[in-house]
Amino acid sequence: MSSPTDGVGTPGHRPRVPTRTKGPVTLRGPLVPTTTTDQRLLDTRGSSDWVHTDPWRVMRIQSEFVEGFGALAGLGPAVSIFGSARTSADAPEYAAAVQVAAKLVGAGFAIITGGGPGIMEAANKGAAEAGGVSVGLGIELPFEQGMNQYVDLGVHFRYFFARKTMFVKYAQAFVVFPGGFGTLDELFESLTLVQTRKVTSFPVVLVGTAYWGGLVEWLSATMLETGRISPQDMDLVHLTDDLDDVVRIILEAQELHAASGNGSHHPTPPVEG
């Protein structure tokens, strides 16, 4: 009897084919679409059919929020960890993310990531191996990543904005490892939410002074010096290489929030909208 192969003569493995996750649905091979749901939503080119289809998209968007809220409502205290999907398993940042996640689980937090490879996988691994709750919030992308094996609770999203809401709503802090555009997007969105008082007592911890130091210096020397941000806004960012310091910063923020009673600990209002 013949056996399927992976294309290099190894029996028992299906050949690798393109894969795409669309919400709860997984598609492979010829069924993989050439565009993403977000792309079709935001693309105004083409015929006027979008006028008739967009109202129905609202129902799909609503369903993503309902699914996300339903899956995560009972999660309890959690920390979202971000960083590059390109980080290899033998990189120092990978090992550090595993350790940080384990330490946070020991402090009573669940761990939320984007569910993909790299730093996300490392954080989910640390949480799972420490006996904590390991959450992955996946997203439909042209280059499918898939949910890593260490995710215990996984939710797939089509729309970035629905996914971002879950990252913030169910987390008490962000821990940010070296990453690219996606990591920067999450970093500055979280800082904006805290600055504009959309969320309270939400520490943002950057891990890796060699990687993030230049950015923090630019924020101070350029944005602050030219009045684009206030001096208190710089206090929103915590930069460290000490993994125990990450946990300490988050726990102290929680204690301060609890002591304030009503979340009254806020930075100075932003200068501009």
Please estimate the helix content.
40-55%
Mean pLDDT: 83
Give the H and E element order.
Answer: EEHHEHEHEEHEHEHEH
Intertermini distance? 68 Å
Instruction: Say what the CATH topology is.
Output: Rossmann fold
Beta-strand residue fraction? 5-15%
Largest sheet: 7 strands, parallel
Count of alpha and pi helical runs: 8
- CATH uppermost class: Alpha Beta
Query: Which strand order do you get reading across the main beta sheet?
Result: 6-5-4-3-7-8-9
Compute the number of strand runs: 9
CATH architecture: 3-Layer(aba) Sandwich
**Compute the gyration radius: what is it?**
20 Å
Can you tell me the overall shape? globular
* Main structural class: alpha/beta
Work out the count of structural domains.
Answer: 1
Regions with little confidence, pLDDT below 50 for 5+ residues: 1-14, 262-273
Concise structural overview:
The chain is of the alpha/beta class and 273 residues long.
Give an overview in words.
This protein is an alpha/beta fold. The protein has a single domain (66-260), classed as Rossmann fold, CATH 3.40.50.450. It contains eight helices and nine strands. The protein has a seven-stranded parallel beta sheet with strand order 6-5-4-3-7-8-9, with helices on both faces. The chain has a two-stranded antiparallel sheet with strand order 1-2. Mean pLDDT is 83; it is low at 1-14 and 262-273.
Question: Main traits of this protein?
Answer:
single chain, 273 residues, alpha/beta, Rossmann fold, seven-stranded parallel beta sheet, two-stranded antiparallel ribbon, 42% helix, disordered N terminus
